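thread: overnight batch results

M.L. [08:02]
morning all. the overnight job finished for the chain we discussed friday. pasting input first so we're all looking at the same thing
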Amino acid sequence: MLLDLFSSKDRSPAECVVKVDGQEIAELYPFLIELSVQTSRSEAATASLSFETRRDELGRWTVQDADVLKPWARIEIHAAFGHRTEEVMRGYIREVKLDTPQDAGAAQVRVECQDDSIRLDREHRRKTWGTSTLPSSDRLLLVEILSAYGLLPDPENKPGQDRLVGIAQDDTDIKFLKSRAEFNGYELIFREGLVYFGPMRLDADPQDTLLVYAGADTNCLSLSANVNGHQADAVAYDAPAETGDGVTPRTVKPNLSVMGLQRADSSQAGLEPFVWRLQAQAGADANRLQALAQQKANELDIQRVKAEGELDGTLYGHVLKAGLPVGVDGLGDWLSGVYYVDSVSHNFNAQGYRQHFALLRNAVGDNLSTLPGPGSALAGVI
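M.L. [08:03]
and the structure it wrote out:
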């Protein structure tokens, strides 16, 4: 008999709360073995729930016959910190899998879920956005598409392109929105019923600081960091001439905010320029090439410093969110500072609540002292 870690009787300060179609699945908590949620700034959030299942004397199974876990049922997953909860993800059940090995005691049901973006992947549409007399915009098409699914644009969204004429959609809504996000160099993140459509939010208020080797205040169980010097400082491309068949060489540098005291590029190394060239793009005009080069330069820039590690969810007391900054303290003057959260894997099991994270940064130098609030300083030392 598995220890019931998910019942109200044994619930620890950081546990999961699962709701299906608005109702908490309390009767299934005793059979929940593990729950994991994968979140990312570039991919849809997904979840996997593993249940042990038992058959009674009438031949009914405890989990799959409970008439709760079905494809396209709404699901919400929260982390509970005492009486306070924070959402980890919401969306729909995508698949329900039953595994019945030779040992009946090892039978399991696995439930796979995806965030709200999966609902936008059900119908292929053919539509042309914007005419010469009535141009459209990324803001307008985003609002129109999301309203059909009861979703709202995030208040922090950026406008994207304006005066769009003849923009053809020949795909599902989610694939079309992803293509518009890519065209603008934007992120597309579904979270808490809102959809963020905009650039990396490097200047947003950082989440609570991850503390390494901070004595009793330590919340980061492990962390490794890597500074990669082989990332180009600029991206070059050949812009087509306004007339004729000639081209004009152009170079684009990153325009991201600096997430530390000094850029982690090689511009001060006294070497030859470090420039990578954009591959040829058939049919792309000068504006499109400029946008592609800027996207590539920015993506190279944010990947100069990478960190990954494991967070104790109970000690941290929050759900770490991808696509937002977070402070990291305890790595010294060179590597401590504000990072950008690339992805987070949330795991609830018998060992508790763990968050495995990947972070990005384009600079070095401890800039935590510039942050407001108590999280700006190392709380303790060992």
